[in-house]
Structure formats: structure tokens, C-alpha cells
Input
Amino acid sequence: MAIEFIYFDLGNVLLHFDHERAARQMAVVAGVTEQQAWDAVFADGLSLRYEEGELTTRQFFEAFCERTGAAPEFETLVHAASDIFQMNESILPIVEGLRASGLRLGILSNTNDAHWSFVRRNYPFVEELFDVFALSFELRSLKPNSRIYDEAVLLSEVAAESIFFTDDRDENIEGARAAGFHASHFVTADGLAADLRERQLLP
Output
């Protein structure tokens, strides 16, 4: 079956990100140590609950404050937690080439409300070049859970066998293949471009 739709992962594919930077910045605005900030967010799954849509941004903030004993300003802490991205410049020509060829594109990502809001404000290409957004916090499911791939299929409006997906994590690629997607582990933009050319999706 011909590929009609392509999903990209967001973090470390379209945009680089740095959780350690988040912990450093949150520590500064909260007046706690970097280790305290890291433990509050990442040590026992708070960040995953937020990405899965179990918590609102306000609830995430309140949990952070409770765990650290800090009382930072809400918007300042959310910005510190979110300003962690950097454009992967090497991927943009690939996305533009696929878009120019007429293929529909989407983003399939484990992310949270604050990060997605930050990305939309600061990286307008995501809404200019992509048609569909299958986001964990909205779909209330994290990759590699089968449910998020099933929801992504519905959003794409094509069959799973007509979808190609690239992600930097092996377990997410395995989950996509189990759902019927064509999938490729992302390492470099050059490697992805070669794979897409082999599939005759890029010239």
C-alpha cells in the first residue's frame, strides 16, 4: 500500500530538547537546587503524568511547589520548564520537500500542554508545514502504548499501512510497526533522507 501520510516525532527529531536545562532553569526561578528540581519533575514520573494529560499545567505547577517547598510565579516557572528547545535545522529541507511533493504531514509526540504552547509560539513552521497533531497530552496516551497510534491513524484519515513514521526511540518505532505503520528509527537527517528516497518519497 502506498504511503500517503508521514508522521514525525517532535523532540530530538524536529526540535532538539534538553531536560537538564529545564531543571537548571526551574531551579533558578524556584530558588532550589538543580537536583531538587530534577527530582520533583523527573524522578518519579510527574513529567510523564503531565505528558499523558493526567495533570493540567496548573496541577503540574502545584505539584512542583509542593514537592520543593518553593513558591515561584506560575508563568515564570512554566516558561523555565518550556524554554528547552532548539531547531534541528537539518530536518527542515526534508519536511519542506515532502510537503512540496503533496504528502500530508503530522506530528506524533509525547509532549505536554506547556511545551506545545511554547513550540507553537516560537516555531511557527510546525503549523505552517504540518496538517495533523497527535499529541499525548490531548490523546491521553503515551508512545509506545498502542492507543496513541490508533488515535493517530484516525486523525490522519488514512489506513495505518499508508503511514510512515520516524522517531528517535526504538520502542516507539516498534510500537508504530506493531500498529501497522511503516517506521524508521531517526538518527540523522541524512539517514532519514536516504530512507525516504529509497521509499521513493523524496527525489
